[in-house]
Amino acid sequence: MLPVTTGISPPRRARVGSTSNLTRRLGRQAGTPAAIVLAALILIGGISFLLHNRISDEEEGHGLHVVSSKRRSLADDSGGSGSGVAERIQLLAEGAELENDRMAQLEDEQQQEDSDSELSGTLFGAKEGVKLANGQQVAAMAAKTGARNAANSRTRSTQFQKASPSRFAKKLEETRHRVGLQAASRQRYSAIVSSFPSQPEPAVEELSEAEVARRREAIKAAMLHSWRGYEKYAWGQDELCPVSQQGKNSFGGLGATMIDALDTLHMMGFHEEYGRAAEWVRSEMPLNASFDASVFETIIRVVGGMLAAHDMTGDKVMLERAQQVADRILPAYNTTTKIPLNIINLATQQAKNPTWNQRASTLAEFGTHQVEFWRLSQSTGNDTYAELAEGTIRHLHKGWPQQGVMPLFISPTTGNFTARRVSFGALGDSYYEYLLKMWLIKGRQDEMYRSMWERAMDEMINKLVFTSREGLTYVAEFDRSIIKHKFDHLVCFVPGMLALGAHSGAVQGAKAERYMQLAADLTHTCWQMYHRMPSGLSPEYVTFSAQGMKVGAAYNLLRPEALEAMWYMWRLTHDWKYRAWGWQVFQAFEAHCKVEAGYSGIKDVRAATPVPDDTQQSFFLAETLKYLFLLFSDDSAFDMDEWVLNTEAHPLRTTQPKQEEQQHERQQQERKRWWWPPSRSKSGGGLISGSDGSGSIAR
Ligand SMILES: *[C@@H]1O[C@H](CO)[C@@H](O)[C@H](O)[C@H]1NC(C)=O
Ligand SMILES: *[C@@H]1O[C@H](CO)[C@@H](O)[C@H](O)[C@H]1NC(C)=O
Ligand SMILES: *[C@@H]1O[C@H](CO)[C@@H](O)[C@H](O)[C@H]1NC(C)=O
Ligand SMILES: *[C@@H]1O[C@H](CO)[C@@H](O)[C@H](O)[C@H]1NC(C)=O
């Protein structure tokens, strides 16, 4: 079965049609008192179902926060720690908010049919600050859920019939309150971006060597500033709270920022700082903190960070520690299908999955161990790690051989997908990245990964890539046969990945050119997400509708993906606009995120003076500043043939393709890549910092 591909249909028309049917049905029902009662019952059924789920999430929600910030869209306004509960509520709200075409349709019909407005207004209390259109839409959603629920679940409907009227009224009141709050905040967030004053256009010009060096120094100074704050206030903890000037543990207490910063410090030539961090890893890093750690985060940040430090310096302690942490994670793989669970307690080694998605394992989580575990096996000579991690990909390859894009959730018990939601953003993203990067790190020979990647990219391009009326290209999401025109900042990793794939020969000829063009278009959209905001910083996600790009969630967590794209595009085209864009993004971080003790995320990118969220994410040091540094470094700073960056931007050594193959490939590249710039300075394969000579790396 092909749960996704069969489900994605050319979306817009079909969807708008069915929505309008739903609306008409509601409108007709509104005509008779009996129909109103029926609609209300269905609606209440939906609400009780949603409430029930929310309550059980809250009961079992413990531990969810640990898998928060790298890959999830955080739902709460504060930009603080996300949770399954928050995400569920967000999904509900998104369901109401993000169906933009549908929303427009509803609004049109609303003008024509007063009865619709009355119905939704009555049910959802416009008086309480819920905008009519939102109310109507939530009502439509809830009614739809209710109808599905009533049809599918006798149990739940009996439950809801048994509920006493007063309990019922209370629940309705609670839900109304919650939905009201949510709708009000959504409304706040959906200001149309195109109406914002734009930042001044950056001058796109070729810079002198001295100017490039000056900018590189400014970026290094930012790294030092972030690091010093961490050293002073949060030493040994996962993250710095730069405003309250303290530390916090959010990833298992393994010193995530310390380890994430290692290779960036080393690349930038901060050897004393590197030395202090390495000494902490050697003698103080706790391996058994009793904390529900995310398997995924621990692998990409901690295992990946130490493997990179080992690859860059040859320091054996880094490898030993990486292996020790990996060994503590392995029990997560002890499932009938060998699909790993998402959460593990490093002290007790008890593994589990979160409850909010029916204890399924998440695509981006189990699909993002392969590069680290493969490299770990290579470095230690023990195949266990690679075999386990690669086993999950082989499972997908064997079970769904024709399918490229995969749903987000899979049951570790049955090995089957449990939902049909698809995303290249939160929960899905780095699975696709690792298909390509596994092909690269294994010496470009393992056809399984390459073909799976190509299939996924082609499906993405055919079904999920859209261009907005204002000419911005984006990758949409898919959920139960509905396309959601939502674009996470996280998806800005896609252009870098496409460019890397095209450059490295994963696809060739005209197709490589198409991928490269799409990479350029998407990078432009990612840039616009910064450029159009009053603060010059991107929101967490935007949505697209007939009116244009809108802000989805307004917070900024200092995320790296857009800069990652700009760096890859700079490297592969040497178009100066990418340096101009990247510099402007850096200026916005300097203006709005820099505080006395480091850099903080902000709560609302539309504010002239944004409020800080008091978190310096560890990926700011691992990725954001590293990509900026590379953007203003010579090409020789990073050899793309010898190194692959894991999804946390930790560089790992690749296995080189055989000599002849390499030569053949080069010839092909020269023939077929018209955009490929003349080689500027070919390094000897090292990973060294810019032309100022700092931070060269010993083997
Ligand atoms: C972790 O290990 C250390 C020494 O190996 C021990 O003293 C400590 O109690 C352990 N902590 C936990 C939470 O198991
Ligand atoms: C794996 O799981 C089985 C069944 O749950 C259990 O009996 C076994 O001890 C576990 N093995 C490890 C290494 O955790
Ligand atoms: C490889 O590592 C696994 C997991 O730590 C261990 O159980 C196994 O004994 C190791 N194999 C060898 C040959 O060292
Ligand atoms: C997985 O799904 C397939 C196809 O729907 C079904 O035949 C199979 O029984 C399922 N496996 C399990 C273990 O549920």
Give the topology.
Layout: H1 11-29, H2 33-60, H3 84-97, H4 100-112, H5 114-124, H6 132-152, H7 154-162, H8 165-189, H9 209-233, E1 239-241, E2 246-248, H10 256-268, H11 271-283, E3 292-294, H12 295-313, H13 316-329, E4 343-345, E5 351-352, E6 361-362, H14 363-366, H15 370-380, H16 384-399, E7 409-410, H17 429-441, H18 447-463, E8 465-467, E9 473-475, E10 477-479, E11 482-484, E12 486-488, H19 493-504, H20 509-531, E13 541-545, E14 548-553, H21 561-573, H22 576-592, E15 594-595, E16 598-599, H23 618-631, E17 643-645, E18 651-653, H24 659-672
Antiparallel strand pairs: 1-2, 3-4, 4-5, 6-7, 8-9, 10-11, 12-13, 13-14, 15-16, 17-18
The chain binds 2-acetamido-2-deoxy-beta-D-glucopyranose (NAG) (4 copies).
Work out the helix count. 24
CATH class of the domain at 209-232 and 239-688: Mainly Alpha
Placed side by side, the strands forming the largest sheet appear as 3-4-5
Q: Helical percent range? A: 40-55%
As a percent range, the share of strand residues is 5-15%
Low-confidence parts, pLDDT < 50 over ≥5 residues?
A: 1-39, 44-69, 71-166, 179-190, 671-699
Biggest pleated sheet: 3 strands, antiparallel
Q: Compounds present? A: 2-acetamido-2-deoxy-beta-D-glucopyranose
Radius of gyration: 25 Å
Average of pLDDT: 75
Separation, N- and C-terminal Cα atoms: 49 Å
Secondary-structure-derived class: mainly alpha
What is the count of β-strands? 18
User: What would you say the CATH architecture of the domain at 209-232 and 239-688 is?
Assistant: Alpha/alpha barrel
Shape: globular
The CATH topology of the domain at 209-232 and 239-688, please?
Answer: Glycosyltransferase
